[in-house]
Amino acid sequence: xxxxxxxxxxxxxxxxxxxxxxxxxxxxxxxxxxxxxxxxxxxxxxxxxxxxxxxxxxxxxxxxxxxxxxxxxxxxxxxxxxxxxxxxxxxxxxxxxxxxxxxxxxxxxxxxxxxxxxxxxxxxxxxxxxxxxxxxxxxxxxxxxxxxxxxxxxxxxxxxxxxxxxx
Amino acid sequence: xxxxxxxxxxxxxxxxxxxxxxxxxxxxxxxxxxxxxxxxxxxxxxxxxxxxxxxxxxxxxxxxxxxxxxxxxxxxxxxxxxxxxxxxxxxxxxxxxxxxxxxxxxxxxxxxxxxxxxxxxxxxxxxxxxxxxxxxxxxxxxxxxxxxxxxxxxxxxxxxxxxxxxxxxxxxxxxxxxxxxxxxxxxxxxxxxxxxxxxxxxxxxxxxxxxxxxxxxxxxxxxxxxxxxxxxxxxxxxxxxxxxxxxxxxxxxxxxxxxxxxxxxxxxxxxxxxxxxxxxxxxxxxxxxxxxxxxxx
Lengths: 167, 297
Description:
A: about 170 residues, 5-stranded mixed β-sheet, B: alpha+beta, Uridine Diphospho-n-acetylenolpyruvylglucosamine Reductase, domain 3, 5-stranded antiparallel β-sheet, 12 helices
């Protein structure tokens, strides 16, 4: 009989809402988001730290949530794709991805939008090379990236340095 | 993919981490940025029974300047180094920090973890091999300090005891008139480079007074290309010296054929990277601002 592994209490704020959850230490952050909190907008693509489909913001920094244990997020503020929209209004980044046809199947899109948000918080007027670098860790197998590029430029233009939604 | 189940311990100081890992024994591992360890655990190549998390220890992430040296906290993330004005004063450090994997990995991965892992495809050991670098280590019996060249002994093997950790990385600031560049070639951002080259030159007028050349991903550890350094020292940087240094780098490389390319291809690639890095290093030594980083295919 393998010995029982004690669970660990984790306090996290996800999209502004506080949670206290007991997790198995080996539970990955992405699994806690998807399985425990039912926030299935964060996707698991490669599960090997390559594709970036699982990208979320951890205290504002883009991370691959398949490459962190949930216990490591204790005390952190997490933003997932579900946290972008407010009061039924799409975030300017979401709107820009739609307007620019920056997605086809949509599997990589949540991760790409969060990488976009981190970029635009740091650089209000990103150059082409900044955009390329910001999404180098997000793989899209449908679009060839051109429209994602356009979407990110649209988003930068529409946000004009604001966080979106005027906040 | 689930790793094998493990007990989780959160250290509140580096000393406590050392004590914990010492007491828990061989099946305990330290967790820094986790960008290599967690994937290895998910693939069950690494199966620790206990994991001691270093990420909640305060004061372990810093970049300080003192007495002609730069001091890096063991958990300083690549992204922090990328964004640091102090670190960017030594351009080769910025080249490295800004190009490792992708944004997400750079936000988590740490300089101390990278050196302690000693992956033959890692970036930091190559770059720091061209600078005067000391690795401070903390164990049960206190601290000891190694030159980087003595710290990394083989692929995935350092001088660290099981219950010892990297507590600081100290880099001597290169002299004025010195310039460096790091170029790594990779097929896509998140993968390891196929080959990489770091060059640090000290110029006096048109003459190269001192040179350090290191190669990455073409051996079990970073390779110091000593013959390439000899080819550059006390010479003007001409087509002839460039070719001699590139040839010497090709000869010093000891690559394996794998999915990233044949051994011959990697030798040719690393020679070209050395040649290009020398050109950038010379211009930077003259004070030119040039932005370079990892190159994607």
